[in-house]
Amino acid sequence: MKELFYRLFALFFNISSALFSVKENRVTLLSPHNASFNDSLGEIRRELEKRGEFDFNLISHKDFSSALSALSFFTKKAYLLATSRYVFMNDNFMPLGYLNFRKETAVVQLWHAEGAFKKFGLDIDQPEAIRKREIALNKKLSFVICSGEGVRDIYASAFGVEKEKVLPLGSPRADVLLNSKNAAELRAAFEAEHPECRGKKTVLYAPTFRDDHECDRKFLSYFDTKLFNEKLGSEYVLLVRLHPQIHGKMLLEGAVDVTDYPSVNELTLISDMLITDYSSICMDFVLLDKPCVFFAPDLQEYSSRRPFYFDYLTYVPGETANTTAELIEAVKNASVSERAKAFRALNLGAVDGKSAGRIAEVIVDK
């Protein structure tokens, strides 16, 4: 069924591409999963709006919220995409491999994460059909943006493109973190809504998903929040943000549930410390020189299914823990280590708060 949808979209797109010329000021922002456009795509839009009048075509999963919007997706939005001068995306858009862009269209993959942590894209084992589709869609890319020279080769491999197409220009979504001047206001507003956080250090627990309902439930059971609060509750408050792909609504008792909080960037700004396992959210905390702790009791099992680019235990920018008791000690001793600074230099070498401007200059101005 998905294949049929991809080809139907491609049919309308390719007809439009053959019949209509590209509009110099038309920009498509493609966000298959994040319909709020509050990430790199949003920053690119703001940057282009400073430069002149652009006609923006937004595509996301919300286009399937009704029969009418789905019809618009297959017709009007396919036409607008086909006639766009610039296409910016933050994830794989599966119909892309079937689309015949005009030669003057620039298709730019911004990606939704920084650096190199878990293997992704063509660097992981995939079913043959999916792999073929990814290879086809990556051939349509004009450029891939990465967060620094240190990960350029990895991005070229993961997307199967020539190194020259990978531009280490930074990460627009991280511009917000480095340029924010309202962290204190955000914290005050959050404490007004959650008075239990006043006067305490906030620890954000943001684990990633396991692709399996039982595994999701199992790994959450490893975290003894009662013991955590007994030992650290007078000084720390625990916030929990579960990955959107974790199956079902699972809560940790004794923690503030911020899973539905609209902006992960704001949570990063108001939090003093991160606990995660294998999530690239650690890049944001390292960028802000905030300590990270890694709670990975299922490391062997997880890495057998989703390998890493580097040895996990020696690579992550913080202490690791296998039990809640070890985690508590790691939180007590957490700091920004020399290893965290080296991690930042490798992964975020081009992230300086000016990424969106650089990308617009290279892709649009030139």
Mind sketching the topology for me?
Elements: H1 2-19, E1 23-31, H2 40-51, E2 55-60, H3 67-82, E3 84-89, E4 106-109, H4 128-138, E5 143-146, H5 152-159, E6 166-168, H6 172-179, H7 183-193, E7 201-205, H8 213-221, H9 225-232, E8 236-240, E9 256-257, H10 264-270, E10 273-276, H11 282-287, E11 292-295, H12 299-305, H13 312-315, E12 318-321, H14 324-333, H15 338-347, H16 355-365
Parallel strand pairs: 1-2, 1-3, 3-4, 4-5, 5-6, 7-8, 7-10, 8-9, 10-11, 11-12
Task: Tell me the radius of gyration.
Answer: 21 Å
Number of domains: 2
> Architecture of the largest domain in CATH?
3-Layer(aba) Sandwich
Query: What does the overall shape look like?
Result: globular
In terms of DSSP E residues, the strand content is 15-25%
Characterization of this structure:
The strands form 2 sheets. This protein has a 6-stranded parallel beta sheet with strand order 2-1-3-4-5-6, sandwiched between helices. Helix 2 packs across helix 6. The model has no long low-confidence stretch (mean pLDDT 93). The chain is an alpha/beta fold. It has 16 helices and 12 strands. It folds into 2 domains: 185 residues, 3-Layer(aba) Sandwich (Rossmann fold), CATH 3.40.50.11820; 166 residues, Rossmann fold, CATH 3.40.50. 43% of the residues lie in helices and 15% in strands.
